[in-house]
Recover the amino acids of this structure.
């Protein structure tokens, strides 16, 4: 199937709407959350209209349908990232909860005082704070792979850190600010050689790249539906079956048990062992529909389109006097362009762009330490997805000139 | 909406009259807006009668937060500490002369929050100060 952005945009009803100022919405904030195609909205709608019931254990028609849809989505997601079995897909609320699950269930049981966890300086707060909490509780050590001036990881420094026998290396596959795509496969191989497990924050990579968890050999891989055309409120922690089997449960409650007595319980098998309580059923089904949608277009085609838009955007933004871009060149990054405009705060940039319907994000993008590293409190960030166009990039560039005119 | 970046705001952002630090001072307080990373410190010099005789702000942030700090200090000099305690959200909006959505309101009110936390001698600023 040929990639046709005009046709693709028709799948996203929100792209038709106008903002308060009457301008058509120019959505350049997909790194924060993506828009949703009609097929995903409809799948959730249909579930509530036709099949709504609580899953598992029910014997009636609706419960069976709901369970089949919920578990069917898990199968689709497993296939999408090439997990070896659906039971390796644990539903969570989002990437953040997925990482917390690994921190609370795996790390709490397996790390001792003094054990080293390696993170990086470009992590989202979701892959920093859970480890800081654990550090306070278990007295583990944290160290960080530095980010170089061009926005990539210093792999020599990483190799040196590995000499200290870490127990875990946890890093982002793709930076949500710099867009940097890290060499995950090599980093995981090196982690394993040093005797560590590897956890990958895939919140930005799974939506935009073909991800194969078996080829990567990741022990844990975390991602969210809402950044990949799916709904909010549902994410996944992929874990190798053997690692998940050996872990104690995370949250306790219904569904995660095989048997409960007044003073004891036996945990359920995978994946249910980690899914306590009634889950986000409609959202899981929406997630499955999102995976169908992306698969049908093809992740390679999506990545190629984003690369084209990103290259064009970086080229056009660089031409603007006073714009400073962060992150590596287009060939090393995903669809993100974080920038500052000389003398104008990113919040003002975003607010003025909004007058023309242009949605960009301004702030530290939940990566405060990374911004501190570059000596800036905040950036403006435009990000792109399968529905983004060069015309939208042009409108962004025009908008930035307007911001400059207002302030000068 | 277009009023948001009225000339007076851009002007006070680019050429503030009260930017800097005050030494000596009687009151000094600083706080951040975690949402945007805006940071404002306010120093006050206060007479024996409890009247603010001079004031300065320092920090960084968006045009709204910085201009509002400058405009606020302009009105604060000559006021008593008791009068400052009575200032609220509406006073700042009146000084700015603009209408703000909930997100930018936090930018605009950061300076008042810092000012009142300092005047009350609080350990930490809180949002109730500007309601």
């Amino acid at each position: 199937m040929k990639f046709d952005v005009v046709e693709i945009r028709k799948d996203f009803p929100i792209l038709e709407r106008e903002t308060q100022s009457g301008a058509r919405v120019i959505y350049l904030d997909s790194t924060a959350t993506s828009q949703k195609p009609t097929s995903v909205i409809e799948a959730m709608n249909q579930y509530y209209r036709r099949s709504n019931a609580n899953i598992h254990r029910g014997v009636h028609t609706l419960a069976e349908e709901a369970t089949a849809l919920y578990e069917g989505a898990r199968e689709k997601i497993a296939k999408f990232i090439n997990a070896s079995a659906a039971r390796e897909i644990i539903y969570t609320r989002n990437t953040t909860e997925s990482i917390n699950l690994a921190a609370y269930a795996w790390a709490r049981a397996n790390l001792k005082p003094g054990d080293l966890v390696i993170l990086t300086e470009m992590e989202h707060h979701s892959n920093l704070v859970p480890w800081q909490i654990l550090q306070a509780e278990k007295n583990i050590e944290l160290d960080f792979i530095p980010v170089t001036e061009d926005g990539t990881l210093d792999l020599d420094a990483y190799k040196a850190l590995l000499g200290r026998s870490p127990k875990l290396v946890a890093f982002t596959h793709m930076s949500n600010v710099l867009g940097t795509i890290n060499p995950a496969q090599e980093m995981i191989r090196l982690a394993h050689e040093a005797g560590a497990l590897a956890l990958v924050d895939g919140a930005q990579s799974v939506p935009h790249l073909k991800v194969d968890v078996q080829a990567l050999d990741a022990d844990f891989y975390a991602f969210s539906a809402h950044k990949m055309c799916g709904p909010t409120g549902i994410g996944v922690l992929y874990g190798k079956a053997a690692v998940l089997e050996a872990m104690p449960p995370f949250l306790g409650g219904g569904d995660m048990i095989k048997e409960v007595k007044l003073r004891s319980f036996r945990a359920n098998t995978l994946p249910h062992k980690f899914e306590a309580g009634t889950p986000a059923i409609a959202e899981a089904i929406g997630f499955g529909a999102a995976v169908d949608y992306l698969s049908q277009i093809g992740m390679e085609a999506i990545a190629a389109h984003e690369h084209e838009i990103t290259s064009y955007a970086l080229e056009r933004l660089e031409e603007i006097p006073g714009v400073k871009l962060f992150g590596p060149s287009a060939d090393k990054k995903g669809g993100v362009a974080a920038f500052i405009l000389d003398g104008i705060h990113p919040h003002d940039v975003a607010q003025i762009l909004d007058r023309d319907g242009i949605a960009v994000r301004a702030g530290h993008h939940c990566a405060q330490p990374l911004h501190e590293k570059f000596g800036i409190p905040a950036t403006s960030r435009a990000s792109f997805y399968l529905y983004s166009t060069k015309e939208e990039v042009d409108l962004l560039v025009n908008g930035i000139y307007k911001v400059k005119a207002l302030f000068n | 909406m277009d009023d948001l970046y009225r000339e007076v705001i851009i002007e006070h952002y680019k050429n503030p009259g009260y930017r800097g630090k005050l030494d000596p001072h009687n009151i000094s307080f600083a706080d951040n807006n975690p949402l945007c990373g805006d940071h404002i410190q306010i120093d006050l010099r206060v007479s024996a009668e409890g009247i603010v005789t001079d004031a300065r702000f320092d920090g960084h942030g968006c045009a709204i937060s910085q201009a509002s700090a400058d405009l606020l200090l302009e009105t604060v000099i000559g006021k008593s500490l008791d009068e400052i305690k009575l200032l609220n959200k509406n006073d700042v909006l009146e000084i700015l002369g603009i209408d703000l959505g909930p997100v930018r309101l936090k930018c605009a009110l950061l300076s008042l929050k810092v000012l009142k936390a300092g005047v009350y001698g609080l350990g930490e600023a809180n949002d109730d100060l500007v309601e």
Observations:
- Chain B touches chain A through 18 residues (CB under 8 Å).
- The first strand of chain B starts at residue 27 and ends at 33.
